[in-house]
Amino acid sequence: MTDETSGPESGAKVPLDPLLLEILVCPVTRTALRYDAEAGELVSDAAGLAFEVRDGIPIMLPEEARVLDPG
Amino acid sequence: MSKAAIFDRRAVRLHRDRAASLVAHVAPILDAVAERLLDRLDDTTHRFARALDIGGRGVVAPRLAARGIETISCDLSAAMLVGAPGLRVAADEECLPFAAGSFDLVVASLSLHWVNDLPGTFAQIRHILRPDGLFLAALPVLPTAAPLREALIAAESDLSGGAAPRISPYPRLHDAAALMQRAGFALPVVDTDRLALAWRRPDSLLRDLRRAGETNALRLREQRPLDPGAFAAAFASLLGEDATMPLDLHLAMLTGWAPAPGQPKPLAPGAFDTPLGAALGDTTE
Q1: Residue pair B21/B233 in contact by the 8 Å Cβ criterion
Q2: CA distance linking residue B161 with residue B12, whole number of Å
Q3: B64 and B87 in contact (C-beta within 8 Å)?
């Protein structure tokens, strides 16, 4: 529990596997995604949604995605 | 997703989230189906490099990995993916987040029967397959659970004068075949299989359904809650001589290929110009 390098609550980001970045598209618009490694999100500019990458698992569910601020 | 949706996808996801830590208890059933489905890989000389496992609940991905196939697992529930070998993606089968031609094999073992738009999902699967990629699916079809459905309706009507849908409206076998055709798969093959299952007690059946994430996700389910008495009565009415209630899983095993040049194709009508007699070496004309 005190291990700071692992666990979902530690804040340590498990990087996204490059293969996933290659094959994943936005589930809503089927367009390319931009990986924001800092935020740990896959961003669909076309849909205005950011999909969280949780422990290396992209959560590609539109209803779970963060809605981007317009502009 | 649409107003005609019959399944509550949020409920499907919730059921799978809750089942994630318990699904190992029902792994033997899931694994028996996966084994039979993946047997079809032995019927082809194709070698597959990259597979997508849709909703395999921990039994499909290890079998694919054991065949040396790089496997990506997806599930509507991220919790259900914990422990899966290889790469994992939480994804909705109704809007798959993969680019065209990403895989040369897609496997859906017992995972597409809570999907509202099956034609749409099949078309998407074809889209994410490379040309000459293979789609394998095990889909429960009627008469799965048909006796239980009838017994439940009768028991609920007896007790309360009405009944609500409790059991998924499984497609028929020929619906499954038509879906493959409609989605444009080449060389589609649909065959049947049956897994004989039986339960001794109504509560253990409900428990196993919960462990598999297979409890009722019909949108109309909330109109009236299931009366445990009606369920017990329906269960009891179906008990066999061995004091168990049979609940066989009738499966459509679907195989189809993403179209590609060079695949065997049926000849067009009128393409035959050799008389049968000539082909048989008949010289009596």
Answers
A1: no
A2: 28
A3: no
In a domain, A1, yes or no: no
Task: Select from A42, A61, A63, A64 the residue whose CB has the most chain B CBs within 10 Å, as the one to mutate to test that interface.
Answer: A61
Position B67: which residue type?
Answer: R
Range of the domain at A22: 8-67
Question: Which positions in chain B touch A61 (Cβ < 8 Å)?
Answer: 13, 76, 90-92
Q: Is A35 helix (H, G, I), strand (E, B) or coil?
A: strand
Query: Which of A53, A60, A64 is the best mutation test for B, with the most CBs of B within 10 A?
Result: A60
B143 preceded by a cis bond (ω within 30 of 0): yes
Query: What total number of domains does chain A contain?
Result: 1
ipTM here? 0.86
In a domain, A60, yes or no: yes
Is A20 within the bounds of a domain? yes
What is the Cα–Cα distance from B147 to B135, expressed in whole angstroms? 31
The pTM of this model reads: 0.89
Name all domains of chain B by residue range, CATH numbers in brackets.
Answer: 9-142+169-219+249-259 (3.40.50.150)
| pLDDT tens digits, one per residue of A4-40 | 444 444 445 678 999 999 999 999 999 999 999 999 9
